[in-house]
C-alpha cells in the first residue's frame, strides 16, 4: 500500500530538515500540536535549544498562548521570531522554578510567592536589595502582565469567571506591589550599573594625531579642487569627523 502523497511530501521535508538541523531536532516536527500553534511550532519552538526550559515552555499552556499571541503580532517578520523565542524562554525559566506548576498556577498563587520565584530567577541579593540580572526581572514582569491580559480576554470570551477573577486579581496586585517590590529595585540596580560603568577615553596623543590627519586630508582635497561628487563626499566626511572629534573633546 502506497503512502498518501502528502505523507511523502512530509517525509521528504523531514529528510531535508534532518540534514540541516539534525535528525532528533527535525523529529520534533512530528509531535502533535494544536492547529492554532502550528506556525509557532514550525518557526519558533522547533528552533529552540533542546533543554529543560523548552520542556517547561511546551508544558505550560499559558506560555504557549503568550507566544502564539506574539507570533500573530510579529511572527511574519523573520528576525522577530528570535525575539518571540527569547520571551517564551524567559517565562520558561520562571516556570521551572515553580515546581510541578505552570504559569496559570503562578498567577493564582499569592503575589509574594510570585516575587520570590522571580527574585530567584533574576538572582536578587536581599542584603543589598539589588538584582544581578535586573533587565530580566523587568522583562518577565511585563510578560506576566501580558499573560494575565490574554487570560482575562479569553476567559471573558469563554465566560470563565474563575480565570477572569484570577487575571483581574493579578492586575490589582501588580499595580499595588510590583513597583515597590520588583521594578523600583531593578531600575535602581540598572542605574547603579550604568553609573559605575567605566568609560574608556582615548589618549591625548591619539586625538591629536587623528585631528592632524583629518586636517591634512581636508587641505589636500581643497587644494586639488572639488571637481566631482566623490571629492565632495570625502570632504564632507572629513568635516563631519572633525566636528565629532571637537565635540567629544569638549565633553
Automatic annotation (TrEMBL):
The chain crosses the membrane at residues 103-126. It comes from Mytilus galloprovincialis (Mediterranean mussel). This is Uncharacterized protein. PANTHER family: SET DOMAIN-CONTAINING PROTEIN-RELATED, TYR RECOMBINASE DOMAIN-CONTAINING PROTEIN. Keywords: Membrane, Transmembrane, Transmembrane helix. The keyword Transmembrane applies.
Amino acid at each position: 500500500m502506497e503512502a498518501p502523497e502528502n505523507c511523502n511530501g512530509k517525509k521528504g521535508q523531514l529528510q531535508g530538515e534532518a540534514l540541516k538541523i539534525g535528525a532528533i531536532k527535525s523529529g520534533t516536527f512530528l509531535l502533535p500540536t494544536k492547529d492554532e500553534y502550528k506556525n509557532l511550532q514550525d518557526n519558533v519552538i522547533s528552533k529552540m535549544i533542546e533543554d529543560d526550559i523548552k520542556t517547561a515552555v511546551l508544558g505550560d499552556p499559558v506560555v504557549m498562548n503568550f507566544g502564539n499571541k506574539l507570533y500573530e503580532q510579529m511572527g511574519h517578520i523573520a528576525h522577530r521570531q528570535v525575539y518571540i523565542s527569547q520571551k517564551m524562554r524567559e517565562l520558561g525559566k520562571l516556570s521551572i522554578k515553580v515546581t510541578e506548576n505552570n504559569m496559570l498556577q503562578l498567577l493564582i498563587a499569592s503575589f509574594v510567592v510570585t516575587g520570590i520565584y522571580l527574585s530567584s530567577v533574576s538572582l536578587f541579593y536581599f542584603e543589598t536589595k539589588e538584582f544581578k540580572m535586573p533587565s530580566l526581572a523587568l522583562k518577565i514582569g511585563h510578560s506576566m502582565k501580558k499573560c494575565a491580559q490574554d487570560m482575562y480576554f479569553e476567559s471573558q470570551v469563554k465566560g470563565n469567571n474563575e480565570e477572569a477573577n484570577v487575571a483581574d486579581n493579578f492586575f490589582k496586585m501588580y499595580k499595588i506591589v510590583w513597583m515597590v517590590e520588583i521594578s523600583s529595585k531593578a531600575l535602581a540596580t540598572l542605574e547603579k550599573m550604568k553609573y559605575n560603568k567605566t568609560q574608556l577615553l582615548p589618549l591625548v596623543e591619539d586625538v591629536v594625531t587623528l585631528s592632524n590627519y583629518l586636517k591634512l586630508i581636508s587641505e589636500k582635497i581643497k587644494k586639488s579642487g572639488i571637481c566631482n561628487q566623490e571629492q565632495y563626499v570625502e570632504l564632507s566626511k572629513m568635516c563631519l569627523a572633525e566636528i565629532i572629534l571637537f565635540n567629544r573633546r569638549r565633553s
